[in-house]
């Protein structure tokens, strides 16, 4: 068995949830915050049999889209490096960031 953590954009999360239900894939959905953009994203936790990992990855891949997003870096208080004015920078987010981990034990009590 494997544990899949998939971090996706909020805009893709409803469609991905629906795909998991349609394909009988059990998942838990968490509201999370990206450390860099400090904006909301969604993390799915999926416990799945080894032989279904690729199926799950394909669904995540097909459902998660890359998007450009602008972020304004925080104003630097150190004016020795000329950081008193900041400009928005463009950042590419996604499709999905996915971790696949081995599961030592799985219990349902
Ligand atoms: P955020 O941390 O908000 O990052 C959003 C996007 O900003 C990233 O997209 C990346 O393109 C960019 N970015 C992140 N850190 C950067 C930096 N120090 N300098 C320049 N650009 C930077 P993604 O790579 O697609 O990541 C989307 C979200 O997935 C991340 O949101 C974070 O919540 C999660 N994530 C990505 N890599 C991770 C990792 N190694 N461990 C845990 N979570 C991760």
Automatic annotation (TrEMBL):
<dbReference type="InterPro" id="IPR011322">
    <property type="entry name" value="N-reg_PII-like_a/b"/>
</dbReference>
<dbReference type="InterPro" id="IPR010375">
    <property type="entry name" value="CdAMP_rec"/>
</dbReference>
<protein>
    <recommendedName>
        <fullName>YaaQ</fullName>
    </recommendedName>
</protein>
<dbReference type="Pfam" id="PF06153">
    <property type="entry name" value="CdAMP_rec"/>
</dbReference>
<dbReference type="InterPro" id="IPR015867">
    <property type="entry name" value="N-reg_PII/ATP_PRibTrfase_C"/>
</dbReference>
